Amino acid sequence: MTTSSRRVPSIARGLTLGLMTTLLASTALAQTPDYRARLPQDEVIYFLMPDRFDNGDASNDTGGMSGGRLDHGFDPTHEGFYHGGDLAGVERRLDYIQGLGATAIWMAPIFKNKPVQGEPGREFAGSHGYWITDFTRVDPHFGDEAAMRALVEAAHARGMKVYLDIVANHTADVIRYRECPANDCAYRSRADYPFTRRGGVDGEVINNGFNGRNFDRLTDTDYAWTPYVPAGEETVKVPAWLNDPAYYHNRGDTTFRGESSLDGDFAGLDDLMTEHPRVVEGMIEIFGDWIDRYQIDGFRIDTARHVNPEFWQAFVPAMIARAEANGIPNFHIFGEVYDVDPAVTARFTRVDGYPAVLDFAFQYTVTDIVARDVPPDRLARVFASDALYQGGEVGALGLPTFLGNHDMGRIGGFILTAKPDISNDELLQRATLAHAMMMFSRGAPTLYYGDEQGFSGDGGYGSARQDMFETQVASYRDDRIVGGAQPTFSTEAPLYRAIAAMARLRQADVRLRRGLQTVRFAAEAPGLLAVSRRIPDTAGETLIVYNTSTAPITANIEVDAAPADWSSSRGDCPTSATAPASIRVTVPALDYLICSSEGVR
Ligand SMILES: [Ca+2]
Ligand SMILES: [Ca+2]
Ligand SMILES: [Ca+2]
Predict the structure, then answer these.
(1) 78, 292, 293, 446: which could form a disulfide with 45 (CB 3.0–4.6 Å)?
(2) d(C-alpha 47, C-alpha 444), whole Å
(3) How far is residue 47's CA from residue 90's CA, in Å, rounded to a whole number?
(4) Cα(123) to centroid(ligand 2), Å
(5) Helices in 351-460 by DSSP H: which ranges?
(6) Mean pLDDT of all residues in the chain?
(7) What is the model's pLDDT at position 6?
């Protein structure tokens, strides 16, 4: 492409490129709505927990169940129970979410859960959604099929995508072991408790001739423990095949190490035998049906690392084929592989067949840089590891990046933990800088609901699952708010406004979404990180320079050798190079610049 005659402001140029992309895509995908043509890296994802987002329908707060909180799970004063949020609440806040610049919504699981589980005195509710009993329907606390359909159609009408959070590793905790009335059976390994002996290597011969593949021989389930379904729960799981203990590992609780990481129960959650062809076929049927019924745009897959690769090698292509059959060309699938080492997470893109994984390395590193004064050079090392992913740095464009989540906690909380005496101004600056590093680096930025309102929190799990609506949880009410207290769903909150502005820049400049990265400079102490993003074989360059230190810094940064005019997308950039292939920038403390050029003059 010749760009020598193009001297248009960056916003207008971005729109031109965006329009061209749309036109090209719509030629190839006739009849496909424009939003379907967007690639995963074009999205800004908004991750929310439906229970904590907005209560659009008070009539479903107890899920239609009678009794007390230990029956229906509703107790808006306790962080571990249902608070009343639902799908109708998400639908009525689509303006708010879209106004933030988000283009795709990832909802924590919306499938029917066991409302309450846990031993007496330690009960919690399935408000997070990861304790599924009925994989075929919406949890009654969140609404019904009509509410789900209305939400997805309203999102699609606005050009927004909907990603579901799905689980194939486990179901709710229903199966118990006779030997452990307290539900605390330790893991029993395949070597010590082979499938073909009852209760250990010296036990009676059972499942005679089972060799790990001929599952029709695996009929006796008490090789390790003696699993059973308690009275009254025999048909609680849907589809019905899920009620048969033969489709579970039944080896006791995982220690998250070695073999038990794959075959153990998460604190009692029934671990599916995902090697079993019936389980593979059943899960493909369950989740393929959600694509057929609701035209879902993607899946975030929970606990991906706790399932054998052969399962994903069958499941992932089946879901992509199902989406394509529904006219959904860019169905996104990203796995949760909770590990900060890209060598561990990248394996899931190379062996297991995942298109993408959540970028835990990015999260950990940006948090270290912004909250803990780790040098920005560390992020350059993360980007260098992009070569590990399937497709290399092009593949890495589709990785959802994030700053915190419902398990680990929020970026505001991380900064406050590291710097408890920080001023309000510096807290806001650091949280804003972290968001900028996410919004302008490669990957699909994933906002965690409430961060835009300045939520911080006392830690992970329940502490990071605050209500967007007026909360009745005392431990949420005293949280420090980044940017100062706001009315609920404020579109004037400082971080909301800052993120929305970043999303507009990202939308206007295709290089900020699809451009490959060249790290120009990365300081080895708090200081500058300079990254260029360019589209291969296309002139033009967008340079992002972050300053992670508390003093302004002026420096010369290498850029493309071709002389070019430069313009400021954000902050004060020079209008031309200082010398061939070098521009001088001054970046204020804890701030960033975005400078762009269209190339050859
Ligand atoms: Ca409700
Ligand atoms: Ca497993
Ligand atoms: Ca169990």
Answers:
(1) 446
(2) 12
(3) 11
(4) 23
(5) 360-372, 377-384, 392-396, 411-418, 424-440
(6) 94
(7) 33
Dist. CA 325 → ligand 3 center (Å): 36
Using the 8-state DSSP alphabet, how is residue 352 labeled? S
In the block, which residue shows the tokens 């003696």? 226
The encoded tokens of residue 322 equal 């199902």
Ligand 1 centre from 50 Cα, in Å?
A: 9
Distance CA 358, CA 14 (A): 27
The answer for 499, left when phi > 0, alpha when psi is -120 to 50, beta otherwise, is alpha
- Greater pLDDT, 585 or 6: 585
- Cα distances (Å, whole numbers) of residue 559 to 129, 393, 530, 556, 582: 48, 20, 10, 9, 6
Which of 179, 207, 322 is closest to 273 using CA atoms?
207
Residue 60, amino acid: N
The whole model's pTM is what? Answer: 0.94
C-alpha–C-alpha distance, residues 502 and 507, integer Å:
9
Ligand nearest to the CA of 56: 1
Q: How far is the CA of 476 from the centre of ligand 1 (A)?
A: 20
544: enclosing H helix or E strand: strand 541-547
* Ramachandran region, residue 73 (left: φ > 0; alpha: ψ -120 to 50; beta: rest): left
Token duo for residue 245: 């203990």
Active site residues: 302, 336
67 CB-side CA count, 13 A: 9
Tell me the pLDDT band of 135, cut-offs 50, 70 and 90.
very high
Contact 355/332 with Cβ under 8 angstroms?
yes
205: burial class by Cβ within 10 Å (0-12, 13-18, 19+)? exposed
141 within 8 A of 126, measured Cβ to Cβ? no
| Residue 72: strand, helix, or coil | helix
Contact 389, 413 (CB under 8 A): no
Residue 11: per-residue pLDDT:
34
Residues with CB under 5 A from ligand 1 (ion): 55, 57, 60-61, 84, 86
Of the given ranges (30-39, 244-253, 545-554), which has the lowest mean pLDDT? 30-39
pLDDT in tens, 437-470: 999 999 999 999 999 999 999 999 999 999 999 9
What are the E-state strand segments in 124-261?
A: 124-125, 132-138, 161-166, 176-177, 227-228
pLDDT of 300 strictly over 80: yes
Q: Is the pLDDT of residue 18 over 60?
A: no
Question: Which one of the ligands is nearest to 230 CA?
Answer: 3
